[in-house]
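ok here's the first one, seq then struct tokens
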Amino acid sequence: MKINPRDSKELYRINERIRVPEVRLVGDNVEQGVYPTREALRIAENLELDLVEISPTATPPVCRVIDYQKFLYQQKKRQKEQKAKSVKVVVKEIRFGPQTDDHDYNFKLKHAKNFLEEGSKVKAYVFFRGRSILFKEQGEVLLLRFANDLEDYARVEQLPLLEGKRMIIMLTPKKVAGAAPKKEPKAEE
């Protein structure tokens, strides 16, 4: 893993680049406290480690005695773990026409339930073509019926809204309701 020297300068100041009169020193095998910068550098050199400025905005700035490459590795590892833990929101789209039949409606409803159980958001919309824009009330009724049928699985994030030739509704999965029924049957077995 190569580290660009220009990038490392921008991230943290190390050793002689620290230009403040005194620093708060932390780290392993170091007596913690406030030291003049020269003395802190001497302590780091005696331990054959680097003096790394962790918190430059503190008064006095906080520096750690640590191997700089190891410190950068730990920072990258921590960032990678945070990125992995973050939840990625997936939005699934379901398209209706203003005069969607019951069979098609039920088929799309079943798919929406599956998407919501997976934890995805659902964006349902009615697409109006040509003169069918005259039936926008039918589209709104259809979307409200859709949201009502999914009330056990989702909550409405955005009510039906006409954007150009589309009327859109956004549904977000209910976390508590979706997770509880799956756990109960396992406990009974």
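and now the second one, same deal
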Amino acid sequence: MKTKFNWGTGITIFIALFLLANAFVIYKSFQERNDLVSEEYYPQGLEYQKQIDRFAKANALSSQIIISEDPQGMVITYPPELKGRDVKGEVVFFRPSDENADFHDSIKFDTTMIQRVPAGKFIKGKYVAKFYWKMDGKEYAHENTFRVEK
């Protein structure tokens, strides 16, 4: 018996293929993992606005934190508004390509508003310095990206 191909046969084949394709997509979507970056995303979102405010306060200072390299290591120059004030905080040196190269240091500058970090703590490549400090009851934050060449 020979089947004749007409409009009805074509529509039936098209609908069958469409349903099979949808079934395959649904099956694959249930196989996909969708892990959250954080289980506590809502409280972190609320905290993020506070972080934006900390960055805004740091940007309102007369100058930014400057990081430069010299033969002994990295030289961090702080804004003059921090001079003579009780500043408590830390700086996190984050290396995006190697988490083993990350380290923390406290913010401690001399009378010339300079902090030195020895070259032995760094390896060659890109770093992000994240500064968090408290001064006069207010919280501040600043980020600075730099490269270590030696």
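notes on #2: The two ends are 82 Å apart (CA to CA). The chain has one domain: 41-148.
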